[in-house]
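Support request, please re-run this one:
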Amino acid sequence: MINKARGLIRENKIQDAISYSFNILNKAEALRDTISILSSYNLLGWAYMELGKYREAVTLLNRGLRVPGKENFSRETGTLCANIASCYNNMSMRDSGFYYIGIAIKWDQQAQNLSGLANALNIRSSLYLKENKLALAQKDLENALTARKNIGDVHYILADMAQLASFYGLAGQPEKGIELAKNGIRIAEKSNNLARLIFLTMALADNYKIAGRTSDYSSTLEKLMILKDTLAERNSSRVIAEMSAKYQLQKKGNIIIQQQYDLEKRSITISGLVVLLILSFFLFRALFRNYKLVAQQKVFSVLAEQKVISEKAVILAREIERKRISADLHDNLGAYAAAISTNVKYLKEERLEPIDGLIEQLDENAQNIVTQLSETIWVLKNESLTFTSLVDRLKLWIQKLMQSYPSVRYQFSENISLDKEFSPTNALHLFFIMKESVNNALRHSKCSEIHIRFECVQQWKICIEDNGQGMSEVFIPSNRGIGNIKNRATQCDCHVRWEEMQPNGVRVCISEPEAENIKHEKPVG
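Re-run finished. Output below.
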């Protein structure tokens, strides 16, 4: 399965490879197969690197580094660190790149993984080149070539020789590059490796050019052209055969045309004028149509550009308004609510017995205002919110709430492999929908147990289950709480479903509209 996933990535079927790699990961975790778990995270990181999503790749690769027992598998751990370093190199975060490539080299040396060590040294040489540390880059490339020679894989030895020879030229050492390229060319000729022979010849030509050896550079370019022609000839024999047959057919056609021309020689002038007039007509028509098409495309381009500008302006305005609302809530309502709470505490200290009940209610309302305000600001101050942060916030709120319901047991279960993002507005609506659903269960169902399940695999889904009296006519009328849930669900484009449970109880499921029904399993613990 791991080899199949690698094949999918090499065939550029990245989405299929990601889905298949998650399948491998689930199976490996069920079997507690640590080496396959580490390989799965390496596959996922590689797939996201191919898509250019380096941050997502780093997240997945770091999960691999947190797998217990990874210390016993130095080869896989070294590959994880090398891939992370490569991601940071592509993101121009060279300090992090150097940190992880150093760890990768340590693991590869410990495992005596010469292939992984060679790859890690090549990555570090790229980091050194970006910092213009040519001596260190040269040392890594030379060490990588030594490791390749110890492995004995001629294909990769020649590739590293070509890379190092090109580096010598860039580093102002063309004579060393010439010598190394010539050695590689001799090996490539003996092994009949035409593809690597071409790369080595290109490196040799570049070094001759840098060294100012014009005559050698010119002759090497001629050899390079011959090698490329040979490669093209080997891979194009059928095309050449087809072209040859086409040429013979065309040759016969030309003889027939020549004979026809001889027969019609007398009338060629008149025929030529007629053809010229016809061609002129069609040419003029084609130019006119092309002019109209270009004009239409310009109009469409201007309209599209205006649409993009308009959309950006709307998004910017929304963002400015969101930040303004967050600041106003914090500066105005927050100050008033905190003042109410402080005043109530002062009244309590005065021990005014006749209004103790009123004070308690005022204190509770003030605390609710502060809590509600805190939750709103928490959502609005973020550019976006992830599914896990929303789940963590809801769990924290439920744990505080359940202190007021000591007779009701509650439990959480999770199945989260992807962390989706929500806009601040949608996250706020979802948070209030979940709160209202939990409050309904506690206030109306007369339950003794509540179970909240969170899932985000391909689509996200949240289910709140209770063992109360069920969906009576009193429970789901068009009351205000249920109506608020439906309105919020419409605004944040999610689906809310109430289900009767057997033998008793209610399940409220909140999900994406296209999310499929999931299997309801008994939670553990």
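The domain at 2-239 is CATH 1.25.40.10 (Serine Threonine Protein Phosphatase 5, Tetratricopeptide repeat). The chain has three domains: 2-239, 290-381, 383-511.
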